[in-house]
Amino acid sequence: MSAKKLASLGFVILVALGPAMLNAQSTVSYTSVTEQRLLNPEPQNWLMYRGSFNGWGYSPLDQVTPANVKKLVPVWTFSTGVNEGHQSPPIVNNGVMFVTTPQQQVIALNAKTGDLIWRYKKDLPEDLLQLHPTNRGVALLGDRVYMATVDAHVIALDARTGAVVWDTTVEDYKKGYYFTLAPLIAKGKVMVGTSGGELGIRGYIAALDAADGKPAWKTYTIPGPGEPGHDTWPGETWKTGGVSVWLTAHYDPDLNLSFWGTGNAAPWMGDMRPGDNLYSSSVLALDVDTGKIRGYHQYHWNDSWDWDEVSTPLLIDFPKDGRTVKGLVHPGRNGYLWRLERRADGIKFVDARPFVTQEVFTKLDPVTGRPSYNEERKPRAGASVTFCPGLWGGKDWTPASYNPKTKYLYIPANENLCSTLVGQAKPDPYEPGKLYLGIDRPKTTMSWRQGASHIGELQAWDMTTGQRVWTHKFPFQNWGPILTTGGGLVFLGGTNDRNFWAFDAKTGAELWKFKTNSGITGVPSSFAIDGVQYIAVQSGWGVDAQRMQARLDTFRGTKTEVPQGGVIWVFALKD
Q: The pTM is what?
């Protein structure tokens, strides 16, 4: 069903008491989100996870600039009342903001004032195992707000009231399946990917009808018997092979293809499942209408490093050898910056080069991009192996960003980190809903490369040349998703000092910082109301950023305290 049929042409959020906890002080006009608006989002809004289908994380708003960013001040805040990692972007539709939090809450706010409109809280099962207690945001269509939950549901809420319109159980959470991503909506379908690879699931991507939540299609990320690639899994390993999908796909409407990053295989030790293990650590091109796989590129085969490649490639066109390549650009967890070509008949390798020190790959095939390995740096059963970058990679899940004015790609990188994994002699027997890693977890350690003086980096790469142009170094790790703007700025958090940062998009000069209540792993966004540009982000430390900090403290003999607690921060120029 189309968005036009789903939605009326605008309404007023009603003031009433009810289960969604409405606030009687806030009445806001709301505009239906049509599919045409999703294809061509207005500059003043932020309608989806990365702002637009191409995944750039770019706002064309230009009121805030390098010349005036020092005047940026908080204009309102909202405490979520929840701990753990707050990672979702503030989604804004004509003055109404939607954010999600850990423990599966959706909060609707007046984006200009911060007044609460409604709050939805999902009841979660008491026996739910939350390995990643987070939620990365909502999707919008018509007069509805869509969320995927950590107990493997997809829910449609009424945008006016927060009331549940439909609730579809996609999978059994007791088998280890869960969702952390914001859904992708295109052509009347709500698309999600399953997390749970560390619990031995068989990952897949599913589409539901946006109107009623009924299943539309389902595509496994591990080929079954008779499917191409099934022979890359020995024996029955494909049934528990992992290959999660952690993050929202990007979408090319001209090709009608959605692009999904996939996770590593399970268990972690590659010699426990010899073979390439398709489609682990890959990007998949899926037909939105049918879910059919139209192409793939595997960044590295038989993953043994926990280098899942779930960050979705950005749809960036770039020049190469005298022609314009319809590109897919992916700064990988494996520490390489990959440039691929998206085509109707598949995905083609273009080039790749390391953006951090990489001691595992010895070479790449110049035609296919397939890497060769230093086997001494490949973890294996019954052995202790050290490798760089470590298991959190050169860049983890945190999104990169692209600015079409500078033509620079901005990467939140971590340099100089290494890990040591100790493989079990054989994996513990598989049990649904239990960890299935094949490693000795207490002996997993993290270290710095000898002589290193920093870890976190913000890098800028020119997509016209494929070369790095500047780097800003942080003393410790960087877990900051990136926003870039038409005003020539780059915003991110991610550091354990609780700062939210602004840099000059062209030069990399540090221009502004503001210390928030907690560390920031939230995705920033930008929007405008009544001619005023706002920058918004959630602060709330937790999940992997906190876990990395703990391992670094163990290695260094230090103790770093980063307070938890979620707060939405909204900034504007004080003039």
A: 0.95
Look at the block and give the residue holding tokens 């490093």. Answer: 305
Question: What's the number of CA atoms in the CB half-sphere (13 Å) around residue 30?
Answer: 30
Distance in angstroms (rounded) separating the CA atoms of residues 63 and 60: 10
Confirm if 193 and 260 have CB atoms less than 8 A apart: yes
- The torsion defined by the Cα of 481, 416, 312 and 236, in degrees rounded to 10, comes to -130
Q: Give the fold, CATH level 3, of 3-57+118-466.
A: Methanol Dehydrogenase; Chain A (2.140.10)
Sign of CA dihedral 35, 184, 137, 41: negative
Question: Do residues 395 and 413 touch, judged by C-beta distance below 8 A?
Answer: yes
Place of tokens 């500059």: 43
**Distance between CA 62 and CA 75 in Å, rounded?**
18
Q: Report d(CA 536, CA 64) in Å as an integer.
A: 13
Q: How far out from the chain centre does Cα 395 lie?
A: 11
Q: Mind listing the pLDDT tens digit for each residue in 31-85?
A: 999 999 999 999 999 999 999 999 999 999 999 999 999 999 999 999 999 999 9
* Sheet bearing 116-121, strands edge to edge: 91-93, 96-101, 105-110, 116-121
Residues annotated as catalytic (active site), given as ranges: 306
**Tokens linked to 57:** 């994380």
Pairing relationship of beta strands 153-158 and 250-252 according to DSSP bridges: unpaired
| Under 8 Å between Cβ of 408 and 482 | no
- Name the CA radius of gyration of the chain, rounded: 22
